[in-house]
Every structure is written in C-alpha cells, then in structure tokens.
Specification:
binds pyridoxal-5'-phosphate, Rossmann fold, alpha/beta, globular, 18 helices, four-stranded parallel β-sheet, six-stranded mixed β-sheet
Length: 446
Amino acid sequence: MSEKRYLPDRWYNIMADLPQAPPPALHPLTKEPLGPQDLAALFPMACIEQEVSTERYIPIPEEVREIYALWRPTPLRRARRLEKALGTPAHIYYKYEGASPVGSHKPNTAVPQAYYNRQEGITRLTTETGAGQWGSALSMAGAFLGIDVQVFMVKVSYYQKPYRRVLMESFGARCIPSPSEETEAGRAILAQDPDTPGTLGIAISEAVELALKDPKTKYSLGSVLNHVMIHQSVIGEEALQQMDEAGEYPDVVIACTGGGSNFGGIVFPFLGENLRHGKTTRFVAVEPAASPSLTKGVYAYDYGDTAHLTPLVKMHTLGHTFVPAGIHAGGLRYHGMAPLVSLAHELGLIEARAYPQLPVFEAALLFTRTEGIIPAPETAHAVKAAIDEALEAKEKGEERIILFNFSGHGFLDLGAYDDYLHGKLRNYEHPSEAIHEALRSLPQVD
Ligand SMILES: *Cc1c(COP(=O)(O)O)cnc(C)c1O
C-alpha cells in the first residue's frame, strides 16, 4: 500500500463535538474551579488556552510541523502476515508511532509543549517519567528547541532500565531518581520510607514543586491533559487520510491506555466522525489488569499526584495513593485517566477492557514473529485486543476492519521480554480491597 505523504497542518479537538463539556478542573486547596492564572505557574498560556478551547481545529505552528516532518506522517500498515497466521477474514491495520526518533508517540506533544514554552521565555522544563519514554521525548524536544530539561524518573525504573536514562542524557537532559533529596516532596517521602520504589505520583510532585518555585521553569505533562490529547490528534488525523487512501474505514479502533494520550490521539478524530457524520465505529481502550483505572476505578475528582500539588480533575481513578505491583512489567502504571477519555467512557462512547500480562506478551510475540516488530509492552495490550477482535470476526465470519495504534516499539524494553521468555512473569490483578482502600483517600468535593 502506498503511504500518502500528508502531514496535517491542524490538530483536532474533541471538545468541539462531545455532547457535554467535561467538569472544570478545581484548585487543590480551595476546590474552586481553576482560572487560567492558577495554571500559569505550571504551563505556558498557549497550552492553558488549548486546555479549555472548544475550537474544532487548532493550527499546528510551522516550526512544530518542520520537526514533525522528521518522522511524520508515520506509516499506516496492514498486518497481512498476522491476519494469515490467525486465519481471519478481518483486515488489521496499525499506525506505526514507533517510527519517531525515540520510538513512541510521545514527541507529538513534547515538541509543541517545548515550542510554546520557549515562545513564552521559559528556559527550563521539569517532568516525571516512568519507564523513560516521556522523559526521552521531552529531552529530545528540549534539545531541538533550546530548553533545559530536568526529569524525575521513578526510582525503580531508573535502576532497572538504564538505557532510556542514557538516551535522555545523550539529548543533554538531567535525569534524577525519584523520590530525591532535591525537593520537599521527595524528602518527605524518603523520611517515611527510604526504600520506596517511587511512583509516577511522587515524581510529578517533585517536578511540579520545582516549577512552582522558579518563574523561568515550567512543568510539562506527557499525557492526561486536554492539550496533550489535542497534540496527539495528529495520529488520528493522518490515519483518517491513510485509511481513505487504502479504500477502507475502520469498524473498530483500538489503543492501549496509560494516561490516555495515544488512545485519544488515534480515537478522537474517528469519534468526531461518529458524532458529526453518524459513523458507527467502535472504540476499545485496553489497560492492564494490574492498573485498571477505566474498568475498575471510579469516576471522581482526584489529584494527579501524591503530594496534592496538582489541580483536581474529574477522571477514572484508582486513587492518587495507588502503588502499582512490582511484578507488573507492562507499563501503563498511572492511577488516573485523561478527563476526556474518562468522560467519553462515562457517556458510553467508548469501550474499555483489561488484560493480565501473560496473554499480552504472548500476543506481542505472535506479532513479532509474523510482522517482525517487537512492540513496547504498553503497545502489546493493543496488539492483544486487535488479535481478539480478529479472532471474533473469524468466528462470526465477518470481514471486520480493525485499526490499532502501535504506540511504540520495544527495543528498550527487552528486559520485560527476557522475563516473559524465561517464565519470570505471572498474571497479577490489582486487588479490589486495595482499590477500596485507596479510594478512601479521594478528596471530598461537593
Ligand atoms: C507512554 C506510553 C503509553 C501510555 O501512555 P498514554 O498516554 O496512555 O498513551 C503507551 N505506549 C507507549 C509506547 C508509551 O510510551
């Protein structure tokens, strides 16, 4: 199939087409709706405006497009060898975001965020990272746009997964294991529990604290927020064109969900087609059974971090005190879900399912052995769901058109595959009691 050389010049904003607006973000102390000024210490004005925008299309700045052009448009491919191995009449397409320089979809938002910060005179960005994909994407964007980047990396990953740290440092960023002695939030946690493996929630607290203290420093978040969903829509905008070029339209669009950004990125432009033009595509969000915010969390106001520094947003959450199990290898460990993805789920516009990790790795290796690419463990959840859809289509004798987002490749996650191949992983389901316990610490909002 030919790949149309089309790089979008605008992002799509699902807020224009949803039947209702998401509830407002609240101030963490007063619990009153946030004004733009409340967010100004953390984010550049351009992103804050996008956060509340209801414009359907937002132009992509030319300098951002020029950087996108290094790897975009990403390929849309049909997985014919996988189809054949499954013996399915379904057509399986995937959008290959592994084609970016750091191997995932994350630079789609890292680049515009660094760009808008530089436009507003910011010289340093802080952020958190788990396995390191987001940290490497922001480090690359900082190198391109001349901004210093400081990354708090969840401690357990910092020591277990050194290669993405090296990648961040190669881009010139500074990478610190979190919790650290460099912030009040980090010191408080270390005083309580010096051996803590760290969590994304703690690392966010540290990064936010530094941004609040220095007017030339802002904070950058790689998922969850509305402006991130807008930037990631470049995936779905391209896929709409490329599916059209292939002469097909998807019956189902699938993506894995951590904070929800690659899901929103590929799904929202197609969901817009459903809402505006009566298309009937189904959308499937796939999460790990070890971190099941959409399938087992509650839809409630919660903090984005452990130290209660971030705004309160209404989302599907496992509680901001959630600590993912050490045994879980598949990424996607955040306690909350993007407010826009959460709302779409509340409104019945999308489906969600959770898989335990062993069948996810099994599906990933079937993909590797037929299509040749090793998926990131996160992406493997989407691969598993695409395979299940294709097998269901086979059972029903349907020619189903399946599109999934291949959010990233797994070349720097081979340790997880090593564990799987040598029988060191087992299935793990986050226990309901732990969820009930964590939900007791949700903020009271009336
Ligand atoms: C970060 C990441 C994810 C999960 O984040 P979302 O915001 O849910 O997209 C999924 N896949 C890859 C490859 C990632 O790097």
